[in-house]
């Protein structure tokens, strides 16, 4: 799956770059932070569900769900505010994040690492030591500068 971390205090999102397929390793160079116009998404779930949700986000926001059965969750950034977003079957939710949050198979490991003072990047790197579905290079996006701290 993946590990995505939002560090509320430092306004950073860190993501791994591992992609899995059929419960196995596929590659370690998948870009998990995507832009759609002025919106930023860092999501986990099925790749086709993520793409469909991101492409249709504005419609979901205005009118609710359509007939597609999706299962994905993560972070959406709009106008400097950070939101928890998810769609699960017939439920869509969006709420402002006011604390640290993590998503994916390594989420609990990463949140514990943040609790013990790790940076967002170090938290994802720690999760990768224990979660076989987290790996590859960790990318950090700074929400104050709206830039990656590294080159993709």
Descriptive report:
- It is built from 4 helices and 12 strands.
- It is an alpha+beta fold and 152 residues long.
- The protein has one domain: Glutamine Phosphoribosylpyrophosphate, subunit 1, domain 1 (4-Layer Sandwich), CATH 3.60.20.10.
- The strands form 3 sheets. It has a 5-stranded antiparallel β-sheet, covered by helices on one side. Strands 5-6-7-8-9 form a 5-stranded antiparallel β-sheet, with helices on one face. A two-stranded antiparallel sheet has the order 3-4.
- Helix 3 crosses helix 4.
Kindly list the characteristics that best describe this protein:
single chain; about 150 residues; alpha+beta; Glutamine Phosphoribosylpyrophosphate, subunit 1, domain 1; five-stranded antiparallel sheet; 4 helices; 12 strands; about 25% helix
Average pLDDT taken over every residue? 92
Q: Quote the distance from N terminus to C terminus.
A: 20 Å
Specify the biggest β-sheet.
5 strands, antiparallel
Order of helices and strands: EEEEEEHHEEEEHHEE
Structural class: alpha+beta
Supply the CATH class.
Answer: Alpha Beta
Classify the helix fraction into a percent range: 10-25%
- What oligomeric state do these chains adopt? single chain
Topology:
Layout: E1 3-7, E2 12-15, E3 19-21, E4 24-27, E5 33-36, E6 39-45, H1 47-55, H2 57-63, E7 70-78, E8 81-89, E9 91-96, E10 101-104, H3 107-115, H4 120-130, E11 139-142, E12 147-148
Antiparallel strand pairs: 1-2, 1-10, 2-11, 3-4, 5-6, 6-7, 7-8, 8-9, 11-12
Helix pairs in contact: 3-4
């Amino acid at each position: 799956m993946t590990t995505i971390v939002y560090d509320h205090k430092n306004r950073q999102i860190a993501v791994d770059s591992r992609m899995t397929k059929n419960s196995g390793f596929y590659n370690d160079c998948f870009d998990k932070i995507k832009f759609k116009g002025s919106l930023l998404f860092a999501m986990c779930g099925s790749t086709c569900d993520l793409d469909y949700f991101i492409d249709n986000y504005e419609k979901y926001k205005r009118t609710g769900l359509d007939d597609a059965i999706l299962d994905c969750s993560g972070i959406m950034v709009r106008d400097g505010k950070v939101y928890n977003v998810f769609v699960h079957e017939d439920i869509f939710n969006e709420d402002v994040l006011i604390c640290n949050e993590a998503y994916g198979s390594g989420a609990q490991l990463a949140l514990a690492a943040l609790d013990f003072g790790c940076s967002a990047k170090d938290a994802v790197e720690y999760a990768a030591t224990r979660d076989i579905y987290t790996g590859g290079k960790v990318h950090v996006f700074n929400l104050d500068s709206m830039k990656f701290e590294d080159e993709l």
